[in-house]
Structure formats: C-alpha cells, structure tokens
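Q: Here's a chain of 465 amino acids. Please give me its 3D structure as tokens.
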Amino acid sequence: MFLNRQLLNSYLATAITGATAITFVSLAPSVAIAKSPTEIAAIAEVVTVKIDNNLGVPGGSGVIIGKENNTYTVLTANHVVKNVNIGYLVKTPDHQEYQVTEVKNLEQKGLDLAYVKFESNNEYPVATIGSSEYATPGASIFVSGYPLAAQIKQERNWEFTTGTITSIRETADEGYSMRYQALTRRGMSGGGVFNTSGYLIGIHGQGDVIGSVRNESSSIPEPLKTGFNAAIPIQNFTSSLKDAGLNDRALIIDEGKPDKEDTDVDVEATKNYVEGIELLAKGDVTRANDYLIEAAEKNPNNVVAVYYQGLIDYTKRDIPAAIADYDQAIQNNPNFSLAYFSRGLAHYRQGDKQKALSDYNSAIRINPTDPWSYLNRGIVKEDLGDVDGALADYNRAIHISPDYGKSYHNRGAILYYRRNFKGAIADFKKASEIFSQEGDNESYNVAIDSLNKAQKALKNSQNNY
C-alpha cells in the first residue's frame, strides 16, 4: 500500500506586488529627468491602500484614484473584491480603517478590474493617472502594494519594488497585457504600477508568471519560474470611464510622456535584455542566450541577464554552468531571491541536498511569501528525513498560494504515508481539480492515480475493523 515516491519528486517546482480634483491633459512632451526611485516610492506609498475583508482571508491592494466631496474611489483588481457576499475594508497609509460602501466590477469589459468607494473626512492624496501608451519594452516601472505576511496572523506591510517592462501584448486574458520583470508577492494584486514620473500606468494582478522553455534535446517543455509579472494597462480603464459610471472630473489625468530616464542607462543593453527574456519565455533558447550574453557584456551590473543565462544552461542540462551563473548573480546582488531559488534546484539535481536546503533558506529569508521556495524546501527536508518540517513547508505554501495544485499533492503524499487517508483524499482531490482547471492533463492524471490509491487504502482500512 505504497504511493510511488516518484509522484512526489515529480512535483518539485522548477526554476523556471473636500474639493473635487481637476482633470487636465498635458500635451507637451516632458523634458524633465525621471524622478528617483525614492521620490516615486514616496508618491506611491501615500496613494496605495490595503484591502481586507471580514472573513479574515488574504486580501489585496488598491490605489486611490479619485475624490468627490468625502467619497474616495480606489481602483483594484476584481479578483480582490469579487465575492459580493462579504464585506470589505480599506486600510489607508495612516492606519485608518474604512468600510467599503460600494463595489463596482468591470468584468463586462473582460477586465479583471474593479473599483471600491469609502467615506472619510480625512484628506488623502489622489494618484495621477498617466498614459500606458508610453509603457514600452525596456522602460522602468515601479510596483506598490501590501504583500501577504510570512506569518499567518502577521499584519501586511507596504512594499515597493522596481522592474523593467518586457512586453506589451495586443491581447491577453482579463486585460493583463503589460508584462514586466519584478519581485512581487501575493497580496499586491490590485496595487499600482507607476512610471518614472510617479504616474499610475497599470494595475498589478499577476505575479511569477510561469513560462516554458523547450529543452533542445527533448520534445517535452520544461516549466520555468520566470519572475515575470503582469498588469492591466491604465488605458483599458480610462477608455471605459463612462461604462464604469465614474466622473472623470474626480480624477487627475496627465497623458503626456513620462519623465526621461537617466541617460547613463545603456539603452541597447536594455533592449537586448528585454528581447532575450521574451525569447526565453517563448522557448527560443539559442537566440535568447545570444541576446542575454550581449546584454550582460554591455551592462555587467544587469544581474537578471546573468540569472537568465543560468536558466538557459539549466534547461540544457549543463548544471555546473548554471550554478556558476547563479553564483555570479548572487555575488553582484546578495538579495536576489530568484537566484538562490534556482541555484537550490540546481544543487538538488546534483544531489547536494544540504546546499539546496541552504539556498532555499536564503530565498525564503529574502522573499518569505514565495510558495515555490517552501514547496521545494519541503521536498529537500523530506529527503533529509525531516518529514514534520516538510509538512510545515507544504502547509505554508498552501497558505500563501491556495490555488497551486502541486503543494496539495505533496502534502497529500505525506498524509498518505502517515495513513491519514481521509486527509490525503481531500488533498489529492483538490490537486486534481486545480490541474483540471489549468488544463494540465499530465499532472491531473498523476493526481487522479494518487486519489484512487488513497480511496482504495481508506476502504481497505475500514474493512479491517
């Protein structure tokens, strides 16, 4: 009555946040130098709010975009406030808490957008809405939000992260056509994406997008944790204000070009980098590697370009070269959590589980709300005989990301071995449902096989009494 140990190993996550404002439109191009990240952070922090609910489940973030008399409007992602049967709370940067008085979703436009309103006599700044038209690949962006805390009952705190736009898609599910490389965490959904002027140009809603790279020696694509994120461009919202039932006179809009970035930036190197990671996500490993090597040569400080070279070496099964790339990235940026995560996977593939455990510990220290790091560390702990530690990591991964099927399957396997067949059945069933929704037929079949074994084991155990 044993579950195939390979079922567990197959689910190792691979390397793969009083007065009505006046509307104005600036038509003259700006020649000002871009604001510093510190200045943009100061702008973003005071307009970013936390959105919670009365059920106590993880919430999201939002951006104050309008004010009429004492009524404030907050733009967010619809999946943050989708359940109409519960109440929502807005928590402002000054630690005040307000009951949401209205929720309006924009699903009829095919967008994962919504706005909420709250009443307050306090004065809160309103974000300036910019133009996502100028959000082109290579441009710098800044993401603001309240990520999920590492501990279950710990308060969520504001975070600010920087990144680079990698592509703007013509079409995308739920409007998420703006893609960028940045470190974000669960709970930052609904938070704002800002440009170099500190203007709101998008609503963040997807993090750690999983792409796939095709190994040149195999026809089977291998998943990659790319570090890509996605937002809904703000133009998708401003173009539908009438349908949304909002008065544009309550908004501040500046559709001019964003402030010019520092001229010391090697534009060609940035373009090479962006092109390289886009080719990587599409599975064109060889061309991606060429672009990334050139980007790193022109800008040695671009640790992300070096990191993605490591991913390419990994997919080519050149594990020592991948580790060398990750070493270089970590040497240049000791707080680069993705590099520790990926190096941990590479060490695991080499059989060095102690080094893998050390790398996952570092990744979690830097990014304590990354479910993939907990999932992988759980597998390493289980291999090292720390089953209780593994179970705790799987529980943490599920708490952070309850829609990730592989965490349920791994936890179900431990429950199965411990003869908690009812718990195993529940986890395998949940995993199979998630895989089915995602269209992951291979993982679905594995989960169903596990579910059948657990159900049979439960029946046999009951018959023995």
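Q: Can you summarize the key feature?
A: Residues 1-11, 14-32, 211-223 have pLDDT under 50 and may be disordered.
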